[in-house]
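agent> fetching stored inputs for the 5'-O-[(L-methionyl)-sulphamoyl]adenosine docking request
agent> found them:
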Amino acid sequence: MTKYYITTPIYYVNDKPHIGHAYTSLAADVLARFHRLKGDDVFFLTGTDEHGQKVEKAAKDKNISPQELTDQVSQNFRDLIITMNDSPDDFIRTTEARHKATCQILWEKLAAAGFIYKGNYEGFYAVRDEAYYQESELTKNADGKYIAPSGAEAVWVQEESYFFKLSMFQEKLLAHYESHPDFIAPKIRANEVISFVRGGLKDLSISRKNFSWGVPVPGDSNHVMYVWLDALTNYLTAIGFGEDNDKAQEKFKKFWPCDLHLVGKDIIRFHAVYWPAMLMAAGLALPQKIFAHGWWMNNGQKMSKSIGNVIDPNYLVEKFGCDQTRYFLLRQVSFGEDGDFSEDMMRDRCNHDLANDLGNLAQRTLSFVAKHLSGTAPKKSAITPDGEQLLAMAKNILPEVEKHLANLAFHRALESIWAVIGEANRYIDKAAPWTLAKTDKAAMEAVLWVVLMALKDIAILLQCFLPASAEKLLAQLAVDEKTFSNLGKDYAPTKQLPTPAGIFPRIL
Ligand code: MSP
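agent> prediction call returned; pasting tokens
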């Protein structure tokens, strides 16, 4: 059985989840569901990143302990999984004992291999990004403050610190990027990373001394680990790395290396430079692929708490529906690019693609079967060339969708499914079973069978994208075998079709 290990970033618990967080997890969910339906052994991981100065500061601002804050906010991210109907296999919190233990094991491995030394860090640090910056990367604002490209303020830090010998990995990383051209995608991000690494790598400060909300450095309780070392290690913790029991070791052997780390474009450097270097240093295999998606903007503006234009996924799901939200986010923009959100665009897309194209196709076909065949599905019979053309297109959706998903082109995958839906609508309009009902009942049944057959395969594939709606459609089609192994098999339900009901209401 092929294994498939996919991860989302673990989310900072300094604030409420927003559409950007929902987006990464949704994309991972679609891929996880796709691979499960294919029959792969899937491990889909998400969770929360709970240590560091930023979380400690957020707790202080709220006058609660960091533990209280992380417990509250982490729960919001768990709730978001239910709201968005995601299907992770594990939810990791970096404050869990299992994770702290793994961080310390990895640290000790790096130290034993000679890649960690103690020194002094002097340089800029932006708490909001939890990132170190070179002066050349910063600009000065009107108040004389140093500002990172992300907009976060960077301040000068000077303290004793442990360092990871990142500088030793420059050539090895460049060689890996060259021999694995698909390691970082899309290309624009790969080029960005390559030019950053070519520019020279300095050793990385991997511990902090001036606060305590983190994993203690083994053997030196004055230091906590740099939050990114701690956070990245979550990908190892969840599959049992370093655990001293057979079951965990088997799990690790099976799932590592990870097939895909999905991240936003802002955190590519951590995943495509620091993380592979640490893995190399620890003697571990590198992930197969790191894909960085673009950012959602709100009506052309960057979303930010201070502007007050952050879009809450709970609001969208309540207003438009879960599958509608899933559909819009993945269909509207190409995954690697930035996207612009607007409720008008979302309403139009949902009404056009979901309510009109797919919803009407299903509703009119199933109502017709209910009315003219009393809910008994028609049998396969002589198929016209038009019908054959539709079925040939339907047969091709799996390879098409698979090809697009391999490139993380969710919008293209959906487009190819909607091309079949469009063809099915044209076919039924032209074949006009409502006219045949009066003149040639056998021909009417043959037409209906072809449309139902196409709908079955469409619904099976749509389970990855619109799980609840596809489930409803499959129930209305009385399809029990829902995995990809049923794709292309003749539609032959063994029971009566239930009374059809609309799946996608029009949104006003
Ligand atoms: N905790 C780190 C990740 C550690 S992974 C080992 C982190 N957390 S985050 O909560 O700030 O961001 C998580 C993800 O949300 C990132 O991939 C980021 O790109 C994504 N998004 C945050 N805002 C976004 C948009 N406006 N649009 C799309 N995604 C965005 O970084």
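agent> quick read of the result: Residues 9-12, 20-21, 23-24, 49, 231-232, 263-264, 266-267, 295-296, 303 surround 5'-O-[(L-methionyl)-sulphamoyl]adenosine (CB under 6 Å).
agent> awaiting further instructions
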